[in-house]
Design goal:
Elements: E1 5-14, E2 17-18, H1 20-28, E3 34-36, E4 44-46, H2 54-57, H3 67-82, E5 97-102, H4 108-121, H5 138-147, E6 153-156, H6 162-175, E7 181-188, H7 192-200, E8 225-233, H8 234-239, E9 246-255, H9 268-281, E10 288-292, H10 299-313, E11 322-323, H11 326-329, H12 336-350, E12 352-353, E13 373-374, E14 379-385, E15 390-398
Parallel strand pairs: 5-6, 5-7, 10-11, 10-14
Antiparallel strand pairs: 1-2, 1-8, 1-9, 3-4, 7-8, 9-15, 12-13, 14-15
């Protein structure tokens, strides 16, 4: 029998709060982190204003880390501390403790800055201290160095689905016995390149508000931060006296790419991903108690997700509480699936989904609300669908012996 994979802790640093408790409180209060940027005038983004990692990481070695890597290192420190797995600074680290990080762009600002310096000033004048941040798996590697993670260290790049892919990848490693403890989730930063890209591609909301599934939705806003779960097997958790929060039950994925920046309107890949996740879990659509959607305010993307959900749940969809946390966090790209997963876990523990920040009305037929919605049930569905054709769905269950 395959071992049960459980979540025993988490770390979150987001535009609406640092730490799981602060993140949850802001979500349930309907707080939105989207505002006019202090770093990029004229852009509405969800940023961590005046971010300072030293309260969590101290001063040693932080200067060489870029912004996104600092987010990841802080989330990892939180997850390790919450599970009593923080490594002794004087020790060698645990070879069975690792990290799987999902990201869309990694340290794209570090990459662009290094390359531009080489082009304009010449290769001889680039800083060797900046080079380690110029590969997309640099954040995960730097976090491993900072926290003495001597086990699995992987980076998953699958667009907006990266965070959920990372969780599944880590779960499989644990099932195969290739690790004992793995942090899994995602990281992303808002930088010049990301902010400019959102505006140039027409993804950013002209009104500066993300309205997932909203009748008046006009785009999204870039977000940043990091969210990580600590995963381990039930046996490992019991052996060290750790109490599981919930269990990873089913995962589904399907790719329906047609163009680089175009959602598959019929939602065939998204529908297949949800169906696979339910099948692997061994449940039917009637068992899902709540849905945490990946919608971000894109009319095409939100319509595709609503269609996929309707394909799977039919008329019952109107009775299932749904929330779209990107109204609060912005589009956190490769980390967005991880933020949705954290939200789903908190929803199961509280037996209510948080409000969708700023929600007013929808013509999608989904049950969203500007207030928390109570429910009774054990299973939550998490969606992460991208315009590049990457579609992923995850089912988690509130822990029961």
């Amino acid at each position: 029998m395959s071992p049960r994979i459980v979540v025993t802790g988490a770390g979150v640093i987001s535009p609406i709060g640092a730490g799981v408790a602060a993140f949850g409180e802001a979500l349930w209060n309907g707080t939105s982190g989207i505002a006019q940027s202090t770093r990029f005038p004229g852009s509405a983004i969800a940023e961590f204003v005046d971010f300072n990692p030293t309260p969590w990481l101290g001063n040693k070695g932080v200067r060489v880390l870029d912004r996104g890597t600092r987010f990841l290192c802080v989330a990892a420190q939180m997850a390790l501390s919450s599970t009593c797995l923080l490594q002794d600074a004087a020790g060698d680290g645990d070879p069975d403790l690792g990290l799987v990080c999902g990201t869309m762009f990694g340290g794209v600002h570090s990459i662009a800055t290094f390359d531009w310096s080489g082009l304009t000033e010449g290769p001889a004048l680039v800083s060797p201290m900046e080079f380690p941040n110029t590969v997309i798996n640099a954040p995960a590697g730097q976090a491993a160095i900072k926290h003495k993670l001597r086990g699995v260290n992987s980076t998953i790049c699958a667009g907006l689905a990266s965070g959920l892919y990372a969780i599944q990848y880590a779960a499989e490693f644990l099932r195969f016995g290739r690790a004992r403890y793995l942090m899994a989730g995602g990281m992303e930063e808002v930088c010049d390149e990301a902010a400019l890209g959102f505006n140039k591609l027409g993804l950013a909301s002209p009104t500066g508000v993300a309205r997932p599934f909203g009748k008046d939705a006009d785009g999204t806003a870039a977000g940043e931060g990091s969210a990580l779960w600590m995963l381990e097997t039930e046996e490992t958790a019991r052996g060290r006296g750790a109490k599981p929060w919930f269990e990873i039950r089913g995962f589904g994925t399907a790719n329906d790419a047609q163009e680089v920046m175009n959602y598959q309107a019929r939602g065939e890949g998204a529908t297949a991903a949800i169906a696979q996740a339910l099948e692997e879990t061994g449940i039917g659509p009637e068992d899902i108690a709540c849905i945490v959607a990946g919608a971000n305010g894109s009319r095409a993307g939100d319509a595709m997700e609503a269609r996929a959900l309707r394909n799977v749940f039919g008329e019952r969809l109107e009775t299932i509480p749904v929330c779209a946390p990107k109204a609060a966090t912005g589009e956190v790209m490769g980390a967005s699936g991880a933020f949705c997963a954290i939200t789903a876990g908190l929803a199961l523990q509280r037996q209510q989904v948080p409000p969708t920040a700023g929600f007013a009305c929808t013509d999608s037929g989904l049950r969203l609300s500007s207030k928390p919605q109570p429910f009774q049930g054990e299973y939550a569905l998490i969606d992460a669908f991208g315009c590049d054709g990457n579609n992923a769905a995850l089912v988690i269950r509130l822990w029961k012996n």
